[in-house]
Amino acid sequence: MNDLEKLIPQAVDLIINGETLAIKPLKVGQMPAFLRAISPVMQHLTQTEIDWLALFGERGDDLLSAIAIAVSKPRQWVDELAADEAILLAAKVIEVNADFFTRTVMPKLDGLFAQAKNLAPTSGSTPSNT
Predict the structure, then answer these.
(1) What's the pTM value of the predicted model, to 2 decimals?
(2) Crossing angle for the helix pair 31-38 and 52-70, to the nearest 10 degrees
(3) Which residues contact 72 (CB under 8 A, 6 or more apart)?
């Protein structure tokens, strides 16, 4: 791998449902919809080992929507994949975009969680303004 390939992540070819897909880093135009879809899934993706069954059981619709966006395929195409192919595709999308997740998404989510924790109501009485 040369220096340019290290700086610019390369596509990974993957055969899914008999079709060769080039799994690429997200384009800026894909990010808004992808982030909306993937945000509820992030708790599962931060674990050192992903429990794919739990992930699909709890947030499968969100994950499948995010995959469809990332590979520029209709959601119906993703829905019709075999389970092992869908999991492999999801893993590759996450792997190819890992730098984006670790540098951009995770720090922002950590900040949002910290803000939410600070905004949580405390128990006890609230002083009056009088």
Answers:
(1) 0.69
(2) 170
(3) 30
